[in-house]
Amino acid sequence: NMRKSRFFQKDTYIAVDFLQKEVEVVRIQEIHAKKSPHAVFTVDMGPDKGSKQILFNKPEVKPLNAIKAEMESFHSAIINNAVPPVTINDGYSALEVAYQIIGKINQTAANL
Question: From the CB of residue 100, how many other CB atoms can be counted at a distance below 10 Å?
């Protein structure tokens, strides 16, 4: 049973394992003053391009039952007549982004 997501950014790769509750972050960055203590290794980018370092980080993930926390937060918002941390507008915005992504995927698939 695999529950993983990977996120790619310009200079960063993030792997999230929801089942094992682990996160790995790999970044590449220029070396400015001195090499970071988190650097795994250094890469020479070629003449006049300097060097970059590869950093690896595995941040601590605190144990949490996310569904229970969401329900408790929702319950608290109702009981206290407060705005929930995630509003209906937030949900709507997330759906808009999801539909944009689906549209781009379909557009790309149609052009193959």
Answer: 10
**HSE-CB for 78 with a 13 A CA cutoff:** 6
Write out the two tokens for 107. Answer: 């557009």
> Rounded distance, CA 4 to CA 17, Å?
4
Which of 33, 34, 36 lies closest to 25, judged by CA? 36
Q: Summarize the chain as % helix, strand, coil (round to 5).
A: 35, 30, 40
- In one letter, which amino acid is 18? F
Domain ranges of the chain: 1-61, 64-112
| Model pLDDT for residues 30-50, shown as the tens digit of each residue | 776 666 666 677 777 788 877
